[in-house]
Specification:
seven-stranded mixed β-sheet; single chain; two-stranded parallel sheet; alpha/beta
Length: about 325
């Protein structure tokens, strides 16, 4: 059994969920096309989406930057032709802090019953607790990789889906309150994902499969099979690695087992939803994890491209 060390997620939180509500809004859907799958993933566009999030400042739940980011993500999904649903709640963190949560989901072909969920968290770590400099450990991080990179890839995916509507049901979820956890308490992470899994965002909503993107923009990134993902959904993991090989990115997606990581996908797995986590793991998390170095200087367009092209290659045949 390889990598059975549960590592505290690249972000998350836990606590008691309360005051939940959902509201759904539809955008004017882009003119239908045949398929989006003949388009090319634009790494420059994905990079710009990452930079835009970082420009708001650290997206700590309850902050102005967090609220502004949520509003922008909502508007971007609408602009890209998605039916947008918001899920709001007040959640309590491990330290008693009340966190205002907004999960944001954009749906393509919402009438389809068989649904693929693509997700990434958009909140950021309130403390750079892994920073080498002690004075930095109470500062909030930019979260360029840990949070913004996955969102950036999915926003570029949404842009492409909006230009040519897919023939399949695809949901893009920007999940909240993932990174407000504490080391040694696995239940303190992935608070927004837990709420999402326990409270359907729409009546009867349940995806057939899910793919989480987390820390997918770092220099030198590598994406081995995450242990819990491999246990939950080996067929999805196999398909992603085959897609990476077809897209020319097999070196980034080696056929080996990485760590067992506490992250948003675990909450979906607990709910019986097959889910995998595409996450940078090199015998440990990337060097910028939970440090002040998690900034735009350490975001690599080639890594964003590898993940984005792999995801689209997967969408072509699954």
């Amino acid at each position: 059994m390889i990598g059975l060390v549960m590592l505290s997620g690249c972000g998350g939180s836990t606590g008691q969920a309360a005051s939940g509500e959902s509201e759904s809004e539809s955008a004017a859907v882009a003119a239908p096309g045949t398929e989006v799958m003949d388009m090319s993933f634009d790494a420059d566009s994905a990079y710009s989406y990452v930079a835009k999030q970082v420009s708001f400042g650290p997206r700590v739940p309850g902050s102005e930057a967090h609220a502004n980011t949520a509003a922008w993500l909502e508007s971007e999904l609408r602009r890209h032709g998605a039916e947008v649903t918001l899920q709001k709640a007040k959640l309590k963190a491990f330290d008693g802090t009340e966190l205002p949560m907004t999960n944001i989901m954009g749906s393509y072909k919402p009438e389809k019953s068989d649904r693929l969920l693509l997700l990434a968290h958009y909140d950021t770590r309130p403390w750079a607790d892994q920073d080498a400099t002690a004075a930095n450990r109470k500062k909030a991080i930019d979260g360029a990789n840990d949070g913004a990179s996955g969102v950036g890839v999915l926003l570029e995916t949404a842009r492409m889906l909006g230009e040519r509507q897919p023939d399949k049901g695809i949901d893009i979820l920007f999940v909240d309150c993932e990174d407000y956890g504490t080391e040694g308490d696995d239940e303190s992470w992935a608070l927004g994902a837990r709420y999402f899994a326990e409270h359907p965002i729409k009546p009867g909503y349940r995806p057939a499969r899910a793919i989480l993107l987390d820390m997918v923009g770092g220099v030198g990134a590598e994406f081995p099979a995450e242990y819990m993902s491999r246990s939950s959904a080996p067929e999805i993991d196999d398909a992603i690695r085959a897609a990476a090989a077809r897209a020319g990115h097999s070196s980034k997606f080696p056929r080996k087992i990485g760590g067992a990581i506490t992250d948003d996908h675990v909450e979906l797995i607990k709910a019986g939803i097959p889910a995998i986590d595409i996450i940078d793991y090199r015998g440990g998390f990337c060097p910028t994890w939970h440090t002040m170095e998690d900034n735009m200087d350490n975001i690599d367009k080639e890594t964003l491209k590898a993940v984005g092209e792999t995801l689209f290659e997967y969408l072509k045949s699954n």
